[in-house]
Amino acid sequence: MSSTEPRRSIATVCLSGTLEDKLTAAARAGFDGVEIFENDLVASSWPAKEIGEHCAELGLSIDLYQPFRDFEAVPPDVLARNLRRAERKFDVMDQLGADTMLVCSSVSPDAVDDDDLAAEQLHLLAERAAARGIRIAYEALAWGRFVNTYEHSWRIVRRAAHPALGLCLDSFHILSRGSDPAAIRTIPGEKLFFLQLADAPRLQMDVLQWSRHHRLFPGQGAFDLTAFTRNVLAAGYRGPLSLEVFNDVFRQADPGPAAVDAMRSLLSLQETLGVADLPPAPELAGHAFVELAVDAEAEVRLTDALRGLGFAETGQHRSKPVRLWQQGDARILLNGSPAAAGASVGAIAVESADPVASARRAQRLLAPILPRSHRAGEADLSAVAAPDGTSVFFCRTGAGAADSWLGDFTQLPAAGAGAGVTGIDHLALTQPFDHFDEAALFYRAVLGLEPEPVTEFAAPFGLVRSRTVADRSGRVRVALESALLRRGDWAPGVREPQRIALTTEDALASARRMRELGAPLLEIPGNYYDDLDARLAPDPELVAALRQHSVLYDRDETGELLHFFTVVLGGRVFFEVVQRIGGYAGDGAVNSPVRMAAHRRQRAAALG
Amino acid sequence: MSSTEPRRSIATVCLSGTLEDKLTAAARAGFDGVEIFENDLVASSWPAKEIGEHCAELGLSIDLYQPFRDFEAVPPDVLARNLRRAERKFDVMDQLGADTMLVCSSVSPDAVDDDDLAAEQLHLLAERAAARGIRIAYEALAWGRFVNTYEHSWRIVRRAAHPALGLCLDSFHILSRGSDPAAIRTIPGEKLFFLQLADAPRLQMDVLQWSRHHRLFPGQGAFDLTAFTRNVLAAGYRGPLSLEVFNDVFRQADPGPAAVDAMRSLLSLQETLGVADLPPAPELAGHAFVELAVDAEAEVRLTDALRGLGFAETGQHRSKPVRLWQQGDARILLNGSPAAAGASVGAIAVESADPVASARRAQRLLAPILPRSHRAGEADLSAVAAPDGTSVFFCRTGAGAADSWLGDFTQLPAAGAGAGVTGIDHLALTQPFDHFDEAALFYRAVLGLEPEPVTEFAAPFGLVRSRTVADRSGRVRVALESALLRRGDWAPGVREPQRIALTTEDALASARRMRELGAPLLEIPGNYYDDLDARLAPDPELVAALRQHSVLYDRDETGELLHFFTVVLGGRVFFEVVQRIGGYAGDGAVNSPVRMAAHRRQRAAALG
């Protein structure tokens, strides 16, 4: 961490597990500090003093004890009870070695709408706190009974006028209500005691439920956290950037990767703020190759399929059991591996303007660097692991022989028939349920791809959500998919399918040719074409040709899509062939349920 | 089905799978008809004519083809396109043998706010439909662009004045907007072409998202479907009661049980409407026993634990390897079973005023009746299977020797120490993820228990939701629990825990006695008591005693709860001992996270 970078903290409530699990995960991901969420402490078997010592050993400061609720603007008897409660918590903080306590604006039926009373009582609390060496950070909850905007909480803090009383700003509470964060700049920096950061998708729902279930790490949602945080830093805030994210998935996911995801979100935010020294993401120029790990049976299956799709075997790795199949700029590696079960995408490779810089950036963003065995004279490819375990290679296929990975392959005489494929259009990789948002952030931060909005569709065996990440030119494009709810025992669809979409300039001609070559293409039922005719009424001759060749169709304002599929090969991998006409930007998701039902039939037929 | 009962239908969209899966499940659950959801048909490999024939073979009529969207109040060129689209769908309906088409109120940007134009164009559509022997059922979507209340859709239908044009009423669209269903009675019955029923929890969110993700079967949510449906029947509606439920969980659950759940919801609704001849639920008078299936190791563990809790072994089954342990009215059976893995609740038994009638009602409500092997002279206990597979017995412990299940046990000399347990307070059974709402409906419909509201709390490894079902007197009480999201690989908590809560009149004395007897009680950390003191400030002497005995505490407006726990025994079962003071009505859920973290520590310690 450079000396000008802010400190980075995380609230324990962001992570799953016991307090012990959470602290370990936060320390391993490189956080400087934590907010201790009261419930985590209460359930812990470690006395507060031991927790404090343990944090110190892990190199974590305890930046905030939180939350303290329903304190201010109450009748005298309630105030007396609340002060007693606060003193007990000061005892705990003393043991912990924590010097700042978060006090949320009241939601209590005991409270009254009286800013003067609130200020007076908060002053009293701050006085008690100051006597213990503690500061009070007052925060307006978005659903606070009377105080629910930061402007209002600031008026009260200003009126209370005690040096041990300041504000806690929480991006969710402020941005969820549509408040303008610009006025934060008018608050003196020394009164900004704490900053909590959370992103969120834009949802039309009760703000309390939205906050408690759907927060995300910065960069995963729809809020402009860069602009928000810039205002806070411009006001002179010098405390940590601290994450407080309540999220149903993160609450039950492995805290190790979740903490890494959290740290990556802060590093990425710092980059957009200009307070991080990350190497910029080099420009990407397309998909270099896709490598499939195959067992012996799947290798035969894939070899036949690739031949049927018009690919030629053009290379054999000099030292590994890897074969290169090529058609146009589409390159598929088959890596025969005794450890493989069927076929799956083991690695994807992107063309980088500077592979070494890409890898350096990835490492700074906590992507695990993969060790590569390569012999003298072979290319030293840089690779990192994506959240789903897929290897991501950075390479320059067009570089001189010394640098290009192609130099590692002996060239075979090309014998492919050719079927019009010119390259790789995109990949679609189903993500493990707990890693969907993490994956989008990974590709955005590490590779510099832009995430498109999350979409959902109803598939035969449950809802599916999808988010495509792509470079600005659309030459690198990865669709991340996941079930909306983790699937259970009854889910006869393909488990975690992976799709390799190839580009053609004439889908009908490619389909005809591939069928002649024996490609295992997927049959689409007639009902689909009847519905297509009813819905979009394409030219009847086109519908007839689509029907004949089992090619699907979609249209948007700017263009058309023709696409078709192979059956599922080796358990989870299949190919798509895509023709884009005009500016059609999507991936034909409207046709996915039909394709999925057809794959289900194919599997059922194969099993029966 | 009696001749006065309405027909029962289900929309294919309610169920997971391909159309083939859905139709099979609907027929097996006893539905009379289906609504064919267009997307299901489009993805099916069966031509429409074959689908129609298949439905006929299954005994299912096709009561509705749905939905047809964005038809009315459009410019002439769009109208021409929409009529063409409709004719294509009439072709499909002709093949299917379906005579009613659902037309949803428009959400199209092409539409204009002109009731006269809408009526005129719907008249035209009805004319075309009538020529094909088809009727049009017009439905106001809650988010329709101009038409979003049933009163508005009825004004348009009345103005259109065509015999082949009527209304489709959907309870969700009407009740979600808070419309008063009473005015439905003013609509002539012959203009009510179709009735779709869906329940839902009360959620403050965008109505479209609420509808698409969170609908439930009648009786599972917060809507008053009895009053709603009564209005529709009073208007003279004679069509089917048809379910149209979009639900994220049902969309991916096994369609077999889901269809049974759906049918049970309709049978139960008919009962409250007075149009079903179900035998009423006999009164229940408490928990008769809980039977644990145990392997050899778990049997030793449970035997020791029961002894430590003050239970006495009071009986041995005459023909089965089942031992009866008793203390007060709490009875636990240990069923040594080679098929068991550890310990789990295999059966629960309730005291029924009429066990035979209870079983007859359960059977009518599609509860699987369990075959019982019993010898001559042994009680013929009636039992059914709950959705999680637990057997539910109906019995009369206090009946004469001939009838009571106790007569099947040889009496042993009671040697239990006694520790103040007087009976079973409640059970808490974790439900399989896909069966949570089904379970609540099962206990409500089959046993006549009342469901309390769903609650949620943050547990160490993810959110947990809970819903208690209880008889009016609270003597039979089952807390159904489930993870809010299905857990994945990282979830080191107890998998699907089951809790048996025993009653005491003095928790501190019971805890002291049980500790003397060697019961494996769960240790609660000191932080809990510090927080309890800060939060509720109970009498310091009480806090000290609670702390000493690891007894937890809660308080509400009407009373107090003192409770403590054993460790987890045999993998997933543990005991709780509960003292209720005054009218305390809950189950101490506020303390669950602390208890769960303590159980996690216990397991970790046992493993380490």
From TrEMBL, chains A, B:
Transmembrane segments: none annotated. It catalyses: 3-dehydroshikimate = 3,4-dihydroxybenzoate + H2O. Pfam families: AP_endonuc_2, Glyoxalase_5. Keywords: Dioxygenase, Lyase, Metal-binding, Oxidoreductase, Pyruvate. One of its GO terms (molecular function) is 3-dehydroshikimate dehydratase activity. InterPro entries: DSD, Glyas_Bleomycin-R_OHBP_Dase, IolE/XylAMocC-like, VOC_core, Xyl_isomerase-like_sf, Xyl_isomerase-like_TIM-brl. A divalent metal cation binds at E139, D170, Q196, E244. The keyword Lyase applies. It is an enzyme of class 4 (lyase). Its EC number is 4.2.1.118. One of its GO terms (biological process) is 3,4-dihydroxybenzoate biosynthetic process. The keyword Oxidoreductase applies. Its cofactor is a divalent metal cation. Pathway: Aromatic compound metabolism; 3,4-dihydroxybenzoate biosynthesis. Residues 423-567 form the VOC domain. Catalyzes the conversion of 3-dehydroshikimate to protocatechuate (3,4-dihydroxybenzoate), a common intermediate of quinate and shikimate degradation pathways. PANTHER family: HYDROXYPYRUVATE ISOMERASE (PTHR12110), XYLOSE ISOMERASE-LIKE TIM BARREL DOMAIN-CONTAINING PROTEIN (PTHR12110:SF21). Belongs to the bacterial two-domain DSD family. This is 3-dehydroshikimate dehydratase.
